[in-house]
Amino acid sequence: MDNRPIGVFDSGVGGLTVLREIISAVPNESIIYFGDTARFPYGPRDLAEVRHFAFKITEFLSNCEVKLIVVACNTSTAASLEDLKREFDIPIVGVIEPGARTAAGNTIKNKVGVIATKGTVASRDYEFAVKKINPDIDVYQVAAPLLVEYIERGVLDGSDLKKLICEYVEPLNQYDIDVLILGCTHFPIIEGGIKSCCNEGIKVISSAVETARDVRQVLGANQIKSEKSLKPGRIFYETGNASKFLEISKIFLGTEIKEVKKIKLNMY
Ligand code: DGL
Predict the structure, then answer these.
(1) What are the backbone dihedrals phi and psi of residue 25, each rounded to the nearest 5 degrees, phi first?
(2) Using an 8 Å Cβ cutoff, are 76 and 109 in contact?
(3) Of all atoms in ligand 1, which is nearest to the CA of residue 45?
């Protein structure tokens, strides 16, 4: 038993889609969530810079005495997961490998699509992760940066968004994929819209759900689950001042967050 919290971080509110699944998979666990809203979005940034931010945040969470860290951001996972695991003496879970594993297990045609940020696509990490499991699977990627902007503005449906989604998804339809990985924390919010642009029979996979399963598995394997009788704590931090964290977090988490603590981290 270990009642210390789990640390979860993202570039902003997007990681709350992962947190939502974590809470549903392991409801007794206390959580410290960190959203780097001051530097959002990570997707268009250089991966080396994102890696640097991820190190600073992981240092901060380690100092909060967390027992496990979830890199709840695809771009950060692509930029830093392996280096973080080498550097920090604590279990660390990313979002790419769990999604890749499920995709590899579900494709019949051996053709998997990924829709993600520019950074994640540039890293080719989903492709490497899928091919590590089965080298015969072809992976086709599309960067969809504008979708993140739409969702952040609260545009979650409508004809403009649908047109944009279909433009992004169409090349993947052409490749005749049968599994599509939502490789960005924001995309589960518009999963219905994405599905409606996919050819019939394409299975859409959310990394968030798969990551939460991994978290439960890692807690069990390391014997660091919390006691069931404890009321779990939830603490939220963000770095931005003028962000709309409290306003839009409900869309991502599904429940309201009452307080977000502002924190200044020296990131450079
Ligand atoms: N959280 C990011 C990801 O999953 C998306 C938002 C951003 O670009 O920072 O890659």
Answers:
(1) -80, -40
(2) no
(3) 8
Residue minimizing CA distance to atom 8 of ligand 1: 43
For this structure, is 73 an active site residue?
A: yes
For each of the domains in the chain, give its residue range(s) and CATH number, in order of start.
6-95+209-262 (3.40.50.1860), 96-207 (3.40.50.1860)
Residue-wise pLDDT tens digits, 127-144: 999 999 999 999 999 999
Ligand 1 neighbourhood includes 14 CB (under 6 angstroms): yes
Distance (Å) from CA 229 to ligand 1 centroid: 35
Q: Which of 100, 146, 101, 153 is nearest to 123 (CA)?
A: 100
pLDDT in tens, 86-107: 999 999 999 999 999 999 999 9
Whether 10 is in the pocket of ligand 1, judged by its Cβ within 6 Å, is: yes
pLDDT for 153 equals 87
Q: What is the tens place of the pLDDT at every residue in 147-184?
A: 999 998 889 999 999 999 999 999 999 999 999 999 99
184 catalytic residue (yes or no) = yes
Active-site choice (64, 184, 197, 198): 184
The CA distance from 202 to 113, in Å, is 10
